[in-house]
Amino acid sequence: MGLGKFAVLATMGELLAIRIAGGKWKRPVGLAYRSIIWGLIGVLIVLMFEVFSSGVAGALSKGLLWSGDAVSGKIWAAFWISAIMNLAFAPAFMTLHRITDTYIDLIWGDKVPLRDVRLSDVIGRIDWQGLVSFVIFKTIPYFWIPAHTLTFLLPPEYRVLMAAYLSIALGAILAYGKSRKSQGSKQVVVR
User: Fold this and answer.
1) Which parts pass through the membrane (predicted)?
2) Would you list the DSSP string of 63-85?
C-alpha cells in the first residue's frame, strides 16, 4: 500500500523539487534507488501511522492526554498523533533518509564503488547544521505537525496517500525557497 504510493508520488515530488530549484527538468543520480528508498519509506510510514494512532488512542482512553470535549476530541486526537509521531519518530527518520540519499549521491553521483563507501564518508558529507536547524527544528513544528494533524482527521484509507502528497508539497515549497534564495544571491546591488 505505502510502497507503491510513495515510490511513485514521492519520486515525482523529488523530480518536481529539482525542476523548481533548477528551472529545468533533470534526472537525479540514482533515481531508481531513490524511488526504492521512497517505497521503503512508505512502508515505514504505514507502520508508524498505525503504531502512533493506536498508542495515542490507548493514552487517550486512559486519560493520559487531554482529549477536549465531544466536538474537539477528534481534532485533539489527530493533533496528539501528529505531534507525538513527529517529535519522537521524525528526527531519526529524517536523518536516516538523509543518510540513504548521501549514500546514493556518493555511489551514483561521485562513482565511488559501494565497497569503498564508509559510513564516516557519508556522515562527513551531510549538512548537519541544515538538517537540524531547518529540516528538524523548522519543518516539524511549522509544516509536519499541522499537516499530519489534518492527515489524521481523514479516514484511515486516505492517510498514506495524503502523506505522499504532503512530501510532494514540502519538496515543492523547499525547492521554491531554495530557488528564490539562490536568485537573490545572484542579484547585483547597484548604488
Assistant:
1) 6-23, 35-55, 75-96, 128-146, 158-177
2) TSS----TTTHHHHHHHHHHHHH
DSSP 26: -
Joined together, the cell numbers standing for residue 38 give 521512497
pLDDT of residue 70: 83
pLDDT at 111: 94
Sign, CA dihedral 35-37-43-48, equals negative
pLDDT along the chain (191 residues), means of 10: 89 89 91 96 95 98 94 96 98 95 95 94 95 93 97 95 90 77 55 44
pTM assigned to the model:
0.86
What is the identity of the amino acid at 127?
Answer: D
User: What is the distance between the terminal CA atoms of the chain, rounded to a whole angstrom?
Assistant: 58
178 touches 68 (CB < 8 A)? no
Per the listing, cell 499541522 goes with 146
What backbone phi and psi angles, to 5 degrees, belong to 153? -85, -15
CB of 7 within 8 A of CB of 36?
yes
